[in-house]
Amino acid sequence: MSKEYNVAILGATGAVGRRMIDQLAKSTIPVKSVKLLASSRSAGTHLKFRNQDLVVEETTPDSFDGVDLVLSSAGGSVSKKFLPEAVKRGAVCVDNTSAFRMDEDVPLVVPEVNPEALKNHHGIIANPNCSTIQMVMALEPVRRKFGLKQIIVSTYQAASGAGQAAIDELKKESQDYLDGKNMQEDAHILPTKGDKKHYPLAFNLLPQIDVLEDSGYSHEEWKMIHETKKIMLNDMNSKDIKVTATCVRVPVPIAHGESVYFTVEDESATAQDIMDVIADFPGDVLQDDIKNQIYPQPINAEGSRDTFVGRIRPDYENKGAFNMWVVSDNLLKGAAWNTVENAEYLVKMGLI
Question: Is 130 a catalytic residue?
């Protein structure tokens, strides 16, 4: 009989946490029990796992006694506080925050791209940033077949990347705009909650995601650059692939879009070659039929685990360079599903 696992979901009541519950229920992981954990504010909330009615518990170190697997999306400070406690008690943790992503001893994993990195875990596996995940999903088959020299990405990131409160704020601002009211009065979260100023997202674009650093880049842009290198090259500072990013928040509730410009080493590659390798890659869906105006759109990607890729075309001014458009549900493949999928791979590979 195969082993069954006691699973804890940390941050269970959040937008990603609720989706983790759903993705776990649909996964291949043999689940013996599920424990839902959150802050004291959310303790007592009732949520369902499959047909079970579960009560959310307040998180303490002792919450992880007897737990085999922790799926976490409760914020970086919470992860730093509790995940080492879970590891001490014998659990393996997959964390969907930025808390451990750049730690040398913590694998940063997209299962279709670098599953072998899971073998090096010491109790914690990090989920990459949502925008990084979908980009490497689209580019990894290209890298394997033709090599990659450079990536220039501009993101069009949904409000949900800043949580459910940002979605609610976008909806309120949109109604204010339609009613002729001042949207600024409802802007409390974006571009980033901890910064000095806040701006409305409705009918607007915000070229800032996370804090702005002295380098001129936002921290989101920094993450995309260095996470991509760690995932693809196992070295966050590698010079073997040049990466730069501009990250923009757009008035879309769920699912990020990305315009990706990339240069391959094999200059004989054609756009059709690029399409073929992407179409064959697990988790990627090619939507590229310009005659019939078929291309990825956030409204169609919402609710799907897949990464959608289209508008693949060569840069006729630069040999070996191409453009593509990538869309994925940032709350699923970009967060909850990638977390659960990492756990599935841990089980399949006998690493838990």
Answer: yes
The total number of structural domains in the chain stands at 2
In this structure, are 121 and 209 located in the same domain? Answer: no
Output the domain CATH number for residue 47: 3.40.50.720
Q: Tell whether 166 is covered by a domain.
A: no
In a domain, 185, yes or no: no
| Set 121, 219, 226, 256: catalytic member | 256
49: nearest Cα among 24, 30, 14, 78: 24
Nearest CA-CA partner of 323 in 262, 282, 272, 273: 262
Q: Would you list which residues are annotated within the binding site for substrate?
A: 157, 249
Please state the residue numbers annotated as binding site. Answer: 13-16, 41-42, 101, 157, 160-161, 249, 330
Q: What is the extent of the structural domain holding 83?
A: 5-127+336-349
CB-CB neighbours of 35 under 10 Å: 22
pLDDT digits (tens, 9 = 90+) for 297-328: 999 999 999 999 999 999 999 999 999 999 99
Q: Among the options 130, 219, 226, 247, which is catalytic?
A: 130
- State whether 28 and 87 are in the same domain: yes
> What is the residue type of 125?
I
Tell me, yes or no, whether 139 and 275 share the same domain: yes
Q: Which percentage of the chain shows pLDDT scores above 90?
A: 98
Task: Check pLDDT > 60 for residue 274.
Answer: yes
286 CB neighbour count, 10 Å cutoff = 20
Residue ranges for the known binding site for NADP(+) are: 13-16, 41-42, 160-161, 330
Cα→Cα distances 60→25, 38, 74, 222, 226, Å: 24, 9, 13, 33, 33
Q: What is the pLDDT of residue 194?
A: 85
Residue 1 pLDDT: 54
Q: Assess whether pLDDT exceeds 90 at residue 116.
A: yes
Does one domain contain both 110 and 138? no
| 198 carries an active-site annotation | no
Nearest to 34 by CA among 70, 84, 3: 70
DSSP 55-80: E-EE--GGGGTT-SEEEE-S-HHHHH
Identify the helix (H) or strand (E) that includes residue 194.
Answer: none
